[in-house]
Specification:
With 324 residues, the chain is mainly α. It is built from 14 helices and two strands, in the order ααααααβααααβαααα. α2 runs antiparallel to α3 and α3 packs across α12. Its main location: membrane.
């Protein structure tokens, strides 16, 4: 009888699972609610929220799980966007070409820069990722053939086998939602796997891992590459959402904002990264209507959350996102 009870309870959904269902259900129902209210801006704004949520989840995978504080993570956001924009500039619109190019470009850049960056620790890792991120930023600003500082305008969205279903805002919304769900589930699988346990072990004590014969370096590098490719996907979606590509996508300011999103939602929580991205962008939108110096109001709020809300917003809400 005890065994049966234990078996049943082990299959019960956790609070994190229930919270994730609520969050994704809210995203799924939002277009219908927006249509009922006659407000199309909400749909466009939520697309932006979900795109940055993908980028935040990718950063949470290496920051929250592996303690890799990358201050150049926005570089992958920009690389993904520029890959789509440059291909479109040359008349290549199909997703069967653009998506592999995005993933390959971001994966290759992450593998090269990560192989170097992960040889360092602490503030040195932060500074070297910042340096690589700024290198990508200044390279983008020097691409005069693709707009330089002014950015690159896309005259449409990515096509699928010659068709343009993403031109419809609602269809595009659900494509972005599907990508967010896919990235979240993949990240959860990684965290729950042996691979994820090695990342967490390296975060707690790298010396103990080495003592049992496990070298954490290849695991860290693989996680870094996966996170870069996820952020590249977010960049590709961002380029399609705005139909515009800008070097500002990969600036260090944007990398800092991604870190704030992860910390605000709850460090170590993948669902918290989604909540943090949504909270950050909603607060930015609301506070910017009050004053152009909205960061002066947002700063104290973030400090209060960090000081009194262990686990960020998800911790305050009692969702306990540390195990997702």
């Amino acid at each position: 009888m005890t065994l049966m009870t234990g078996s049943t309870s082990s299959h019960r959904p956790s609070r994190t699972d229930l919270a994730a269902v609520v969050v994704f259900a809210a995203f799924a129902l939002l277009p219908a609610a927006a249509a009922a209210m006659g407000d199309t801006f909400i749909v466009f704004f939520t697309i932006r929220v979900m795109v940055f949520a993908i980028a935040a989840v990718s950063l949470s995978l290496i920051l929250g799980q592996g303690a890799m504080v990358s201050f150049g993570h926005a570089a992958y956001l920009g690389l993904g966007a520029y890959a789509v924009g440059i291909l479109a500039e040359h008349g290549i619109w199909d997703v069967t070409v653009s998506l592999p190019v995005v993933l390959l470009t971001c994966g290759l850049f992450a593998a090269i820069t990560g192989a170097i960056s992960l040889k360092t620790r602490g503030v040195y890792f932060i500074m070297i990722t910042l340096a690589f991120g700024q290198m990508a930023y200044y390279t983008a600003t020097s691409l005069s053939a693709y707009g330089g500082d002014d950015g690159l305008t896309m005259w449409g969205r990515t096509e699928v086998f010659g068709f343009a279903p993403l031109g419809d805002r609602t269809t595009f919304y659900y494509v972005v939602l599907a990508c967010l769900l896919g990235v979240y589930l993949l990240a959860r699988m990684i965290v729950a796997s042996r691979f994820g346990r090695v990342l967490k072990g390296a975060k707690q004590s790298e010396m103990r891992l080495r003592a049992v014969g496990i070298d954490p370096y290849p695991y860290r590098l693989a996680a870094y590459v996966i996170a870069g490719m996820m952020a590249g996907l977010a960049g590709a979606l961002l380029a399609n959402a705005a139909e515009f590509v800008s070097p500002a996508y990969m600036s260090w300011h944007r990398s800092g904002e991604l870190i704030v999103m992860v910390v605000l939602g709850g460090l170590g929580s993948l669902l918290g990264a989604i909540v943090g991205a949504a909270s950050f962008l909603v607060l930015e939108e609301l506070l910017s209507h009050i004053t152009e110096h909205w960061r002066l109001l947002f700063g104290p709020f973030l400090i209060l959350v960090v000081l009194f809300g262990r686990g960020g917003i998800t911790g305050l809400l009692g969702k306990g996102g540390r195990n997702d």
